[in-house]
């Protein structure tokens, strides 16, 4: 969305708004447990839901994830970022640098490489599986509504691990690997929760039928734009929340 006819929002504004919604969705669905005193050896004790693995793809969806990781850090979480195939462009470089400035654990191509030459696939896979084992919550920001199958390396491993894991997964906009209209291709994973951005996509119907938690984010759409595109958007809370829970009537 950009230009006067589509709201006049720039790409970095949209990513910031989306990423904040994503972070708020995590905080709402997987709230941090209370702070605990150090153990007998003076070691900091882990809080419930503290560790969030933010899995970022190479497009705008991944940019939303980088923004979310930054906000989650400031919310008190301990996010780590899996970003194996970086996007080109200043926006993405700045978002990654912002995460590095917070010393967030980052699984990404080496600094001297380009997105066309990521680190060795086996090293990425091992690091990703280890991160999946050590996290409390998984944030799926890999593929968005423009995804065209099939998935390619290094994301084949990611989608396979999403199918196997027992860790809760929150997907953003559309579960990675799903078709934006037709939904789950049949061999895809089903996340525990979903945050739709701006408006739910047609393909989320099978997720709704699964009974998972469904939130909506993107509290910035002008009324005129919503009317033009026929968006029947719910009212957001008056407490400043960027997300609202959606409920669906059974047909």
TrEMBL record:
Keywords (alphabetical) are: Isomerase, Metal-binding, NAD, NADP, Nucleotide-binding, Potassium
The UniProt record lists the keyword Transmembrane helix: no
Q: Which GO terms describe its molecular function?
A: metal ion binding; NAD(P)HX epimerase activity; nucleotide binding
- The UniProt record lists the YjeF N-terminal domain at 1-227
Q: Which InterPro entries match?
A: YjeF_N_dom (IPR004443), YjeF_N_dom_sf (IPR036652), YJEFN_prot_NAXE-like (IPR032976)
Catalytic activity annotation: (6R)-NADHX = (6S)-NADHX; (6R)-NADPHX = (6S)-NADPHX
- Give its E.C. classification number: 5.1.99.6
Q: Which GO terms describe its cellular component?
A: mitochondrion
Q: Which SUPFAM superfamilies match?
A: YjeF N-terminal domain-like (SSF64153)
Q: Which PANTHER family match?
A: NAD(P)H-HYDRATE EPIMERASE (PTHR13232:SF10)
Protein's name in the database:
NAD(P)H-hydrate epimerase
What species is this protein from? Rhodotorula toruloides
